[in-house]
Amino acid sequence: MMNRNKIFGAVALTTLAMTLAACNNKENAGGGAGSTLVIQESADIPTLDPGTTYDTASGQVVENLYETLVGYKGNSLTELAPVLATEWTGNDAGTEYRFTLREGVKFHSGNDFTCADAEYTLRRNLVTNTADSGNWFIAESLLGTPANANDDKSITWQRITDAVKCDGNVLVLKLPKTDPAFLAKLAYIGQGIVDSKHATEIGEWDGTEATWKEAVGKDLAGSPLSQKPSGTGAYKLVGRDASSVSATAFDGYWGEQKPSIKNVVIQKIPEQAARIQAFLKGDADFIEEGGRSIISSQLQGKPGVSVLDDLPNTTASGFSMNENIAKGGALGSGKLDGQGIPANFFSDADVRRGFVAAFDVPTYIEQVQEGKGAPRNFLLPDSFPGYDTNIEAAAFDPEVAKAAFQRAWDGQVWENGFSVNVSYRAGSVTQQTAMELLKKNIESLNPKFKLNIVAKEWSELIKSDNAPKEAMILSAWAPDYADPDNFVTTFYASTGYYGPRLNVKDTQMDALITEARTTTDQARRDDLYAQIAKRGLDQAYYVVMPASPNVFTYRDNIGGVSESTYNPMIAFWAGTYWKNLTKS
């Protein structure tokens, strides 16, 4: 039930999201509270309904219109701070949480925020829980299953109401078992609290038992709430069409940090050259630049341009190896005869070890990342808790690769050779470069080794019925919440997102992951993740791509942008909320 748009953003290796902004900056000469923040990006914004927000483009707008019960403290990925909940407590078993809710808060509609709104929001997310939303992971915590009631018939109205209910102005949430990531999941903007009175008035689900079955799995992308949002955020919607979104500061905002910039205009500008021209002229404050190379060659050092670099990157990616390629897939002859590979070619760990040792990470960092970044030992961002920097990453070593291939399949790989097709997303220069580096090194080991690089459309690569047919593709993930389990289960568990697609079943790994995701002892979790990282390296499940620091540009008259305020879990790529920005 993972969102393909989110995965696409990660696989494209761009943490830039989708669209914001443009209006004539001549109107902004006054600066200060009367100014307009102008942001330009390449694509549209799918939804403004928190209940189905699961892409960065939507998230960076929704997170400024709505608020969650808890949020991240400053730039920390481990400390949470009160937002609409002023405090919370949990029982010793970690199966019940009580949230005292903030008083004196208004929605954009003028309605008062009450516990009924928080109750409605979470129940609505559990009821609808479509595949296009991130509600699978909150359902997994509160109901014990990522599914909705259409897919899991054991889900009843009683289970939902027992899991989420009000006790006066206190929201009580009950879990069937301990989930150490639960509070972090509540910080995800998909759990932004909606105005229940407003929602039902404009035609959303009415929140009752009588109608809940009709709302199960309902598509919310174009919902009434997406068209007419009402949150408690510092900005409220002014207008939206196919190519633009505009918002203005909410005069009734409860927070101490009031917006300094009054208006935000969000516009779709597909042409990169047009965005760059507007930015250099000062007609846009932020733009989707197009990557590090564009910044260094066309923007850095230009008048009025500021660059913030070496920021934490919370995307993890690696080339995966399918251990049982489906019939009709990338098999060639289907034999170890130099003309193809058998379906289970990558099930031999020495084959995988050979590929891992043949990938030249230092050269990739130098050529693609302009020398920025470092090797990773694990498909977990090194900025996340649970990443052990003391574990050495796999090294580029042709001799190690050669020895591994000589051992593989009792010597048959080395003696007979192979021909294997590897696929990358058409149009991705970074993926193509990585594949070409791997091809060069693999084929230099043995003239009988052939690596055939094939460009394919992303829609073809991610089809669940097609993915198992691929021998090797880039697998990537951007986080839903700041907990290592969001990456570790996704990449390494047999039942995770990628496990079934790679036909990997490692009972030892599964046991470590199961324990790590059910214990609240942080020291024990860290130890378990270190063991998982070592197991992953030993078994060489992925060619782990290096960390690539985030970088972005902004006009130098924008304040509130800095490394100390940057939190990568905030969807807007400046890593902070619009309310924290100033414009002079």
TrEMBL record:
<keyword id="KW-0732">Signal</keyword>
<dbReference type="InterPro" id="IPR000914">
    <property type="entry name" value="SBP_5_dom"/>
</dbReference>
<dbReference type="InterPro" id="IPR039424">
    <property type="entry name" value="SBP_5"/>
</dbReference>
<dbReference type="InterPro" id="IPR030678">
    <property type="entry name" value="Peptide/Ni-bd"/>
</dbReference>
<dbReference type="Pfam" id="PF00496">
    <property type="entry name" value="SBP_bac_5"/>
</dbReference>
<feature type="signal peptide">
    <location>
        <begin position="1"/>
        <end position="21"/>
    </location>
</feature>
<feature type="domain" description="Solute-binding protein family 5">
    <location>
        <begin position="79"/>
        <end position="498"/>
    </location>
</feature>
<protein>
    <submittedName>
        <fullName>ABC transporter substrate-binding protein</fullName>
    </submittedName>
</protein>
